[in-house]
Amino acid sequence: MSEFDLIRRFFTRDTPHAILGVGDDAALLQVSVGNVLAVSSDMLVCGTHFLPDADPFLLGHKTLAVNLSDMAAMGAAPRWAVLAIALPEADEAWLAQFSAGFFALAQQHDVELVGGDTTRGPLNLCVTIFGEVPAQQALRRSGAQVGDEIWVSGCLGDAALALAHLQGRIALSAAELAACLPALHRPQPRVALGLALRGIASSAIDISDGLLADLGHILEASQVGAQLDFAALPVSPVLRACLTPPSLPLSGEELGFPHDKGGLRGVKLFQQFVLSGGDDYELCFTVSAARHAELADIAARHNLPLTCIGKIVAGRGCIVHDASGNPLNVEACGYDHFR
Ligand code: ADP
Ligand code: MG
């Protein structure tokens, strides 16, 4: 199979919303009147973001999902994507599954693949995505105001929980794993929520590197601080159980803490999944307290839990309070490729 056969077979679909799609030296795209382009790239590298034996259908899904998540975080409507892909070989079965996963999600969000690049090399997947948003309504990181509420969508930490199991750091039961694995393998980008938050959220970001790290970007860009209430953070029932010592599903020994009979250090680990676990792809955003009620309405309309987790305060940094109001000692480090 030649490079061009490969592109034609696996990566060429109708692109009715592009003036010109795959097949020329560049695609031609027209943004609708009144909108600006929102452009973002996200790369998935084999060995860093996924393992060589990753399911190709799910990988195709996730390659696009992480990019859609950036559009969601900007309040942009995703329109087009280009895909730069390096492949060790032209494995047709793999390519068929990968492109099926990619296009299934693309179709769901009405996104067209309009170009890319295909080369031989260590497996590497890079999507650049193009969306549209009225310039004044883009959800930036820099708009949080003192007094705003901090909200997140969905629940936090399930992807980190699943990853820790796959890495052999913890041992979940089959049922527990089944409950948290989709968060890691099939993240659902919150595109509709991002659109609904136009004109409502004062700032937004998607959580790819962990809540504290990503909220930290909002705080820095907005030059404000935050107070979070740990007990308010939305977590799944599986992770909730891990945060409660008596029902901890693992002994300290299994967690690599042999002297931790009470499971307290284990609880600390699970707290970190919630606060610093990556790959959640939920949205974290700030909203004026006066608009609190509107959020319940958006949550109901989109059938997506939205939770107020704290507030923006004057100053810098983020303090997380436990249920008794004491500050939690947390490591605010999300994933950083160069640290
Ligand atoms: P050029 O040599 O002019 O850069 P290429 O030979 O790389 O063009 O690609 C030919 C056409 O196929 C271009 O329109 C390009 O955008 C598209 N293309 C290449 N790889 C992909 C891919 N993985 N997915 C979608 N389109 C692709
Ligand atoms: Mg090229």
| Mean of residue pLDDT values | 92
The name of the CATH architecture of the largest domain is Alpha-Beta Complex
Shape: globular
Number of helices: 10
- Find the count of extended strands (DSSP E, 2+ residues): 10
Any idea how many domains? 2
Sheet with the most strands: spatial strand order: 6-8-5-9-7-10
Largest sheet: 6 strands, mixed
Output the CATH topology of the largest domain: Phosphoribosyl-aminoimidazole Synthetase, Chain A, domain 2
The CATH top-level class label of the largest domain? Alpha Beta
Beta-strand fraction estimate: 15-25%
Helix content: 25-40%
Tell me the Rg in angstroms: 21 Å
In the CATH hierarchy, what is the superfamily of the largest domain? PurM-like C-terminal domain
Q: Name the ligand types.
A: adenosine-5'-diphosphate, magnesium ion
Please identify the structural class as seen in this structure.
Answer: alpha+beta
- What is the subunit organization of this protein? single chain
Order of helices and strands: HEHEHEEEHHHEHEHHEHEE
Distance between the termini: 41 Å
